[in-house]
Write a structure and sequence with these properties.
The structure holds 2 protein chains of 2 kinds. Chain A is mostly helical. In chain A, 68% of the residues lie in helices and 4% in strands. In chain A, β1 (53-56) and β2 form a beta hairpin. Among the domains of chain B are: 37-121 and 150-174, Sandwich (Immunoglobulin-like); 177-207. Classes of the chains: A mainly alpha, B alpha+beta. The interface between A and B is large, with 54 and 55 residues.
Chain lengths: 212, 216
């Protein structure tokens, strides 16, 4: 999902950069103090996730985790992913400085979309929440592939073909991340439900079954 | 009291899970390198051999290769075979920029320097004359069994031999480029934690100046 330097044309890079700056500004505004540490941990997870890679067909794909990052951070996904991608570019030579904006957009925009589409659902009953979480992880990558296809459209000239290639290449990762997101959400619902968006604190103390 | 204990256990468990995911998982997964494509090229005589692969060791099959000269003019194009190799006869024995385009935004390049071509005429350095004086003293009679060869020929032969001997080493070096090292990974995480600390610092500074001016 990391687009290398020298592939995209100037206007595409510029558009990606501008949109990323806007998203990061909104994200930083919305990052209150409680979420800073959370954003840091998720940013680290995202940073490392790219190293876990799944060999598929002629090439290889890696975990991206943008679905779960978006679900937990909302707009905060922009700064978290920007920082992680910057460090990946500097330390691992994935992507690059000029493509930083576009790459951030590719992964953070779907994260925010996932936050708004699946955030309200994960506080519902298990029957809705778990499929929603799976869809969140799945769609995070799927939409990322679509945005990447749109960015590449101007150089590789066939949006449908490039997007199909990207989507089919990432299909295994979509499924893996869907499952991971479902597990994470199930875990958070039990252990720390306030990690998930739209959490309303229950009136009674449910954690100790009234023994206190 | 109980409440604190319960949450303490859960929190510890969460922490352990996070640490596992962050640090242990990438170490356990051996093939833990991401999506980058690299190309390596070497010269044998007037032929240029290239090898392309994705980080993680998978070869880049059927990826397109473009060869440019120093001025940026396209000299030739081609595709890698199923082993990620592409071989071509150098159209010019000078600096060549070999660009690999592996599709879906993957691209990298390798520059073959003019000096790598054996036929490339190198300007004779000053200290070469010293060498020639020492090896061929004026007026010396050739020893029996000695073959007279010119200095240029000798140089070409040495270069050809060196080329042959060094190729495996260079290729091995290229193959050893295994992507991110542990130090890079830990360093990156450290940077992010530092940013979190910076955020916390700014937050508390702002709060202490705005909330309670009397305390200052």
């Amino acid at each position: 999902m990391h687009i290398s330097e020298g592939v995209l044309s100037g206007p595409v890079l510029l558009t990606g950069g501008v949109l990323t700056v806007a998203g990061t500004a909104i994200g930083l505004k919305k990052l209150d103090f409680e979420r800073i540490a959370r954003a840091g941990i998720l940013s680290s997870a995202f940073f490392v996730a790219s190293l876990i890679h799944v060999p598929v067909g002629p090439s290889s794909v890696h975990l991206i985790l943008n679905g779960i990052v978006g679900l937990i951070l909302g707009w905060g996904a922009f700064p978290a992913i920007l920082v992680a991608l910057f460090l990946q570019g500097m330390l691992f030579q994935f992507g690059g400085l000029t493509t930083l904006g576009v790459n951030t957009l590719i992964m953070a925009l779907p994260a925010v979309v996932c936050y708004y589409s699946f955030g309200p659902l994960v506080q519902q009953g298990n029957r809705i929440a778990l499929p929603a979480a799976f869809a969140c992880g799945f769609m995070g990558i799927f939409l990322g592939a679509v945005v990447a296809g749109a960015a590449l459209m101007f150089t590789e000239e066939n949006f449908l073909e490039v997007t199909l290639l990207m989507v089919s290449a990432h299909l295994p990762v979509m499924i893996i991340e869907g499952l991971m997101t479902a597990f994470c959400v199930a875990f958070f619902r039990k252990v720390q439900p306030d990690m998930l968006p739209h959490f309303k604190a229950p009136k009674t103390d449910f954690s100790c079954n009234g023994r206190s | 009291m109980c409440r604190v204990d319960c949450w303490g256990w859960h929190r510890r468990f969460t922490l352990i899970v996070v640490v596992m995911v962050l640090f242990v998982f990438p170490l356990v997964v051996k093939q833990a390198f991401a999506h980058k494509v690299t190309i390596f090229a070497w010269v044998e005589g007037d032929t240029v051999h290239t090898e392309s692969k994705f980080s993680g060791g998978r070869v880049a099959k059927q990826a397109s290769i473009e060869v440019y000269d120093r001025t940026g003019a396209l000299l030739l194009e081609g595709r890698t075979d199923d082993e990620g190799r592409f071989v071509f006869k150098a159209p010019k024995q000078e600096e060549l920029r070999i660009v690999l385009v592996a599709g879906a935004g993957h691209r990298n390049e390798w520059v073959v320097k003019a000096e790598e071509f054996a036929g490339h005429v190198r300007p004779v350095a000053d200290d070469d004359t010293v060498l020639s004086k020492q090896t061929e003293p004026v007026g010396a009679t050739p020893l029996p069994g000695r073959i007279d060869i010119s200095r240029e020929d000798l140089q070409t032969m040495i270069e050809a031999a060196l080329e042959k001997q060094l190729q495996p080493v260079l290729r091995r070096l290229y193959q050893m480029d295994e992507g991110p090292r542990l130090a890079d990974i830990i360093g990156g995480i450290g940077y992010i934690l530092g940013l979190v600390g910076l955020g916390a610092y700014i937050h508390f500074r702002r709060r202490s100046t705005s909330e309670d001016p009397r305390a200052r």
